[in-house]
Structure formats: structure tokens, C-alpha cells
Amino acid sequence: MVSLMLPRLVDVSAASRRSASVTERNVAALRSVYWLLLVSGFVEPLLYLLSIGVGVGALIGDLTLPGGTVVSYAAFVAPAMLASSAMTGALAETTFNFFGKMKYMKLYDGVIATPVQPFEIALGELAWAMLRGSAYSAAFLVVMVAMDLTAPARALAAFPAAVLVGFAFGALGMAISTFMRSWQDFDLMSSAQFVLFLFSGTFVPAEAYPAVLRWLVEVTPLYRAVHLIRTLTVDTGGWSWLLDVLYLLVVLTIGLLIASRRMSQLLYK
Amino acid sequence: MAPPLIQARGLVKRFGDFTAVDGIDVEVGAGEAFGFLGPNGAGKSSTMRMVGCTSPPTGGELRILGMDPVRDGPAIRARLGVCPQLDNLDPELTVRENLTTYARYFGISRRVARARAVELLDFVQLSDRADSKVEPLSGGMKRRLTIARALVNEPEIVLLDEPTTGLDPQARHLVWERLFRLKQQGVTLVLTTHYMDEAEQLCDRLVVMDGGRIVAEGSPRALIEQHATREVVELRFAAESQEAFAGKLNALGERVEVLPDRVLVYVPDGDAAVAEVAALGLNPTNVLVRRSSLEDVFLHLTGRTLVD
């Protein structure tokens, strides 16, 4: 039994070691200019929270969530901003940066000449995207607690959820990037991302939409992400968040499989 | 005899309808310096990529270090060093980081990676640029860095795809000298090149590829002896037609080739031939004696010679 299992275990440890080397490369490449980009990714959702959550929220008043909890509009918007910043942070890495590295820098052409395989590159890049996404999420949760928009214990529970959101979107973005032909294609993706950002129950509860539209909204990934994080940070809505977790795990798995499969096709010419 | 490190039988690579490599047989032994020569599109790079285990063969058999490149890719690549045709250095890292980061892809510890980077930068004479970014480096420096990077895992086989194309003479000679040292250390070298002089400098044995096939095989000396002469005399005459002079030159060399602007005479000894040209009373406006090149071998191999 041991002899049967051992090669497999060795494989897994070698694979994760190789994935880690890809992540490590990104740490080495981190430069001062890049820090500015990182900061902007944190500031953006914060500005939305202050302008719309707090600003527009003053005109709207309180909302009643599906679970029955009554919250301020800012508390309603904040988890959605967290979810979408986790999405944006992960996507920024796995779309623009990933595409640039693969197509223009030809970075992976050099990497595949080593023992590192496409699946491990995908995993390593995703892990890096998550380091970035997680930093945004943690910072934003601190802000939420400071503004009394959620409880510290809830924030702790929401953090792994935000990481999962990032992982799922990162994998999805990476899969999509492998189909991109040029930078122009990313305009389409940015538009799609913005539509998701506006309508995923972020600023308006999905329950407010007509039935058909509501169903449509509720199957989109950002809605599930918002729902998950909102449930954990402010609502008391039963176990339906487990469905969100499952959904995001499926997106993560499929995204990663497609991404590494496509990368194999593109790199092993 | 030890089993060959690289063994290909009927190796084929197709991209859609296009056949890049059309059934080649190659064997490379340990410690050998082996060359693939040929024009662009001959299938050299496709072959190199298959040997480097980054391009699955479409057909035929390929064994590298006794293993299957598709199934055992990572294990084989761990023991190979690859210097691709186009430098794909990491532009976001410094010269030194390019080496240390690459070493990490092989699972080499940080400490060893740092030590190797120092050694290799010294080996390719880039120590003074260690902390520079890659971008401002000259073509020759980038090439040397790519070669250093290919050595970071102390490979048993180093694959070099056109290692000196586009380099100035100084840079070329430095690269040759470093590759020669590697060869002396017992590293197996496999390289592709356009240049016969490069092949002569470095290769024990080589194959000439054209249209995806191997059209000739042997040592550089044997190939030149077989398909060209040692030297070529290029003669340019003032008259409109070079053709008129060709007839008189036929006896001079093994082969005479008439081009629109000059006549090439293939001879073992160029200077002697030039003396004979003068003795014949011919007055070329321009005389050039040079070593035979791949081009000459090629013209012969592909049958484009006009006068034989």
C-alpha cells in the first residue's frame, strides 16, 4: 500500500513545490511601481463604499435582508464591495497580467522548458493572484469592522469566504484569458465585469428585480459571491451560503482545469 | 557502447497540414556535440522543441535519456538545459534574478541558486551587470544570459537553438569559446545553426536538414569534402555576362557556379586558384577567397548548381 501511494504523494509535493516557484517569481518581480497598482485596488471599493454606501445610503435609509435582518444601506453595500474587490483583485492578476506574461513576455515559454508544467504555472499564478486579492479583502474587512458595518467575529468568518471568491474568479479569469487574442478582447471582459458589478445584488437587492431577471442574476458568480459574504457579515440567512461555497468551488475547479488544458495546448506547440 | 542520450526514429511533427519534421532518424551519444544545420523552415527548431520535451511528436519514436518525452517530461527536462532561438528572459527581473528564479523552477535551493548565479555570471562574463534589468542589455549579453540560464541546473544535455544568430563577431566568438569549454567538461551539446563555421567550430557530427528531412549527415569536414570544396573563389568580371568566363574556369576547380553578378569556383586551395586565374590571363575586377559555407554545401545538396 505504502509503495503504491508513495509515488503519488511525491508527485503532489513536487507539483506544489513547482507551483510555489512560479508564485515566488512574482514576489521577486514585485517593484515599487507595482505597489501603487496594489494600493489602487484597495482604494477603489473603499471609494464606492463611502460615496454610494454611505452617501447615497443617507437618502435610502435601512434595508430588510431576506434573512429578516434590518441593516443600514452602507452595511448592505459593504459586503458586495468586498466580494467585488476580491473579484477585481484576482481578475487583474489572472487576466491582464497573466495574458501579458503568456502572450507578450513569453515568460511561460521559458518556464515550460523546466520541470514546471502548465497546470503548475496556472496554480502558481492563481496563488499569487490570491495573495494580492487576500490582502485587499483583509484590509477591507478591517475597514468594515472599524465602520461598524460588521462584527469582528463575522469578519473573521468572511475572510476565507473572500479568499474563495478570489480563487474562483481568478481561475475563471485565467481560463478566459487563454481564449483572448489581443488586448482589445479585454474590453469585452471589462464590460462584462462592470455589468456584474452593477447588477449582482451589489447596490440593489436581487429581490427587487422582475422574476426572470432575478433568476438570471442569481446564477451569476458575483451574485453568489455577494450573497455568501453578505450572509456571513450581516445576515442570518440559514444554510443557503453553503450552496454559494459549492458554486464557487465548482467555478474554481472548472476554471483551473480549462486554464491548464488550454495552456498546455498553447505552450506545448 | 552506452545507449544514446537522444534517439529518434521516424520522428514527425505536423502543424495542421504542414509537416515541419518529416520522419527523421537521429542519435546523439553522451559527450557529443551534435548540430542541426539548415535554412529557416527546415524543421530544426521543431526538432529541438520535441527533444526539449515542450512539443509532443506527431509520429515516430523519441527517447531522451532513455525516457519518453510525453510521459516523463518533467523528469527529462530536469536534466536538460535549453537555450531557445528567441531569448525569453524575464524582463521584470534583474540579470541575477533571472538565474536564481529559473533555478527555483528546477527545485534548486535558494542558497545553491545564489551560488550558481554568481558562478554562471562569471562564466558568461556578465558579473558586472548582475543587478541590471534585462532590457538594456545588448543582444550578445542577453544571449549569454540565456545560455547561463540553460546551465543553472547543471544539465547533462544542453540544447541551443541558433545560439549566435544576430550576434556581432566578438559576441559570437565568446559564445563559441564558452560552449567549447562546456563540451570539454563532458556536457552533451545539441545545437542548430545557419553557419557552417559555427558547426565546424563546435560540432563533432551534424545533419543537414531541408524541408523537414535529413539530406546529409556526417562530420563537418566530411560534409564539406563530400559536398563542397574547402575553399571558394568568388570572381567578379567587368563584362556584362559572367557566363563567358565560366567556360575558361571549368578546369580550375571541382565545380564552377555562375551567378548573375559573379562566378564561384570551388577549389581546395583558393590562393593557388587565384594564381591560376591570373596565369590564364583573366582579369577579374574583384577577387575573394573564402572558406566553404553551409550555403555552398546547400546549393550542391539541393541541386541548384548551374554548371557542374
Description:
- The complex is a heterodimer of chains A (269) and B (308).
- With 269 residues, chain A is mainly alpha-helical.
- Chain A has one domain (2-267).
- Chain A is built from ten helices and two strands; from the N terminus they run H-H-E-E-H-H-H-H-H-H-H-H.
- In chain A, a hairpin with a 5-residue loop joins strand 1 and strand 2.
- In chain A, helix 2 packs across helix 5 (118-146), helix 6 (152-177) runs antiparallel to helix 9 and helix 9 (221-233) packs across helix 10 (240-267).
- Chain A is elongated and about 60 Å long.
- By secondary structure, chain B is an alpha/beta fold.
- Chain B has two domains: 6-225, P-loop containing nucleotide triphosphate hydrolases (Rossmann fold, 3-Layer(aba) Sandwich); 229-291, YebC, transcriptional regulation domain (Alpha-Beta Plaits), CATH 3.30.70.
- Chain B contains eleven helices and 13 strands.
- In chain B, the strands form three sheets. Chain B has a six-stranded mixed sheet with strand order 5-6-7-3-8-9, sandwiched between helices. In chain B, strands 11-12-10-13 form a four-stranded antiparallel sheet, with helices on one face.
- The chains are: A mainly alpha (269), B alpha/beta (308).
- Chains A and B meet through helix 1 and helix 4 of A and helix 2 and helix 3 of B.
